[in-house]
Design a protein that fits this description.
Layout (H helix, E strand, L loop, with lengths): L3 H10 L2 H12 L2 E2 H8 L3 H13 L3 E6 L2 E6 L1 H20 L9
Antiparallel strand pairs: 1-3, 2-3
Length: 102
Amino acid sequence: MLTSADTDLIRILADPLRLRIVTLLAEETLCTTHLVEETGARQTNLSNHLRVLREAGLVETEPCGRYTYYKLRPDVIARLAGQFANLAESARTAAGNKRACS
C-alpha cells in the first residue's frame, strides 16, 4: 500500500522539470551548471526544484570545490517502484473480484 510519503514523492515527480532532472541524474552525477545546460531552465528555477528533490530525499549533494554536484538516491526510487509493483500484483490477483451493486 502506498504511504503518504510515497504519494508525496509521486506528486513531486509529477512536475515535468523535476522528472527530467531525476532522469538526467539517473544517468550521471551532475552540477547545477550541467543541469541548466541540459534542461534549459533558469538557474534559480532549477535550484528551487533541486531543493524540493533534496528535501524529499530523492537526491543528495556532493560538494566539489565551488560546485555542488547532485546524484540520485536509487534506493528511494527502488522503494517507490516496489510499491507500484505491489499495486500491479494486487490488481492481477483481484482481476476477477467484483463487488455487487445493491
